[in-house]
Amino acid sequence: MGARAIHTDNIHPSAVSRSAAHSLSNADSDSAPSTEALWLSVRALLRKKVGTENFRRWLESMRCERCGQDGTVVISLPTRFMRDWVETHYGAMISATWREAGYELEDIRFGVLPSVEVASAGQPVVVGQTQTSAIGDLPANSDRTAMPLIGTALPVNGLPAKAVSSAMKDWRDDLCAPLDARFTFDQFVVGKPNELAHAAARRVAETSSVSFNPLFLYGGVGLGKTHLMHAIAWHIRGQNNGRRVIYMSAEKFMYQFVRALRFKDTMAFKEEFRSVDVLMIDDVQFISGKDSTQEEFFHTFNALVDENRQIVVSADKSPRELDQIEERLRSRLGWGLCADIHPTSYELRLGILQSKAEQSRRGVPANVLEFLAHRITSNVRELEGALNRLTAHGDLVGQTISLDMVGEVLHDILRTHDRTLTVEDIQRRVAEHYNMRLAEMCSTRRERAVARPRQVAMYLAKQLTSRSLPDIGRRFGGRDHTTVIHAVRKVEELCQTDKDLRQDVDLLRRLLQGA
Ligand code: ADP
Ligand code: MG
């Protein structure tokens, strides 16, 4: 599921632990208690060394994702910013502390992993801070690379023989991936681009009869597919009415299947899936290619549909476009309701930012939110990441968040969204800002409400593009270059006396220029 886990090449999948707030992947199950104890003692020693205050601020949210027999430790932090900070300032101390605690450390790595875990009781436990999005560090699909599944001889990742049987016992408990506590319906902002997907997800969550099977959610990365699936699972769990729901990534599904094959336990595997009321499989585009798994998926799918169980799947493309997937499975996936999540609109982005800013209870000025909603248009994940980075920075340096800070803190993100500015871009942005039709930029109307924004646009066109005055005039409905000169002077003059106008112009310039 999404950017949940740091996976290095041979992390055992249980590195994405769900049994405790501090996840541990034991390379040696015999020494499981001692591995956990080891991590606890490392933490205790660190707390002593840095003091409670610093520990709480920086180190508390660390989790140990792996502690291998080969001396490799992988530690995760909830944000890239924290990861960088901890690695730079405490990295050496942390390494030394592992050794002090008696572990023969060879290599230590720090990564980013959002900080919300689900405890075994199914209750969400929020670890450390709540600003959790991985800021660009782990690509959205980073957990895809790690599943050590392909082929028949499944590597058991250093598990000694004795541990294999316990791993086999465990796998059934392992079925539902941990749910992110933030991914609920309450926290999902609905707008035009996602309203169908949202309504369909709600229907699945709220009614036990099956109206469409499967529900196929698709759309680009970071647009809320995983969020909606988790929301369905949270809702059903919250109702406590005995409906069983399983959510897992397609890769996990394949991994489990290959594991079951290895342990000759495929019957139980099938039964397990067939006994659920709602089966959700995320990112099915990754099922591609592995024929036997596709076959199994297909059979499990059909069995569930026959028994009138609800299935929800997500992918980054429509069923028709999943060209790695076998034809009959592809067409089967398209039988139910396909709900497309469209790229976000400005209004939706702004709504999401407002909601996240409110939740974080940090004052983020409206113009900063507007600026981000205008500039970061790729997806919601990136948008959230930008906001988190800003608030983290604000906290750290103890400053209130402002447009100036945006330029300073997010220049790298903003740069990637840059492109050459045209007069048309300027007209469009200014018209949007003043809530007027783009056509008014070229119209002959002279009322102030139209003429002033038009002058602002001319002024910005002069400032931000290399067009000549006559050229600019022509693009504003064939006006004369003297009109443009007049507009430029007028706006300059007004900026001296009219604070509101100055702020508008300033905001627009930053929006257009990329701060
Ligand atoms: P996908 O699975 O489509 O790649 P995710 O569900 O992981 O995307 O969403 C990426 C991030 O954006 C998550 O943190 C999620 O909470 C957030 N997000 C996406 N859409 C919305 C929305 N409509 N309202 C609130 N948060 C959203
Ligand atoms: Mg996802």
What does this molecule look like?
- The protein contains 19 helices and ten strands.
- It has helices at 32-59, 80-100, 161-170, 195-206, 225-239, 250-262, 266-274, 291-306, 327-333, 346-360, 366-375, 380-397, 403-409, 411-416, 423-433, 448-464, 469-475, 481-497, 499-513, and strands at residues 63-67, 72-77, 107-112, 116-118, 124-126, 215-218, 245-249, 278-282, 310-315, 337-340.
- A five-stranded parallel beta sheet has the order 7-8-9-6-10, sandwiched between helices. Strands 1-2-3 form a three-stranded mixed beta sheet. A two-stranded antiparallel sheet has the order 4-5.
- Strand 1 (63-67) and strand 2 form a beta hairpin.
- Helix 10 packs parallel to helix 12, helix 11 (366-375) packs parallel to helix 19 (499-513) and helix 18 (481-497) crosses helix 19 (499-513).
- Residues 1-33 and 115-173 have low confidence and may be disordered.
- The protein binds adenosine-5'-diphosphate and magnesium ion (MG).
- The site of adenosine-5'-diphosphate (ADP) has 20 residues, from helix 5 and helix 12.
- The site of magnesium ion has 5 residues, from helix 5.
Compute the separation of the termini in Å: 34 Å
Helix content: 40-55%
What share of the residues does DSSP label as strand, in percent? 5-15%
Instruction: Specify Rg, calculated over alpha carbons.
Output: 27 Å
**Major sheet: size, sense and barrel closure?**
5 strands, parallel
Average pLDDT across residues?
A: 77
Identify low-pLDDT runs.
1-33, 115-173
Strands of the widest sheet, in order across it, are 7-8-9-6-10
Based on secondary structure, the structural category is alpha/beta
What is the 3D form? globular
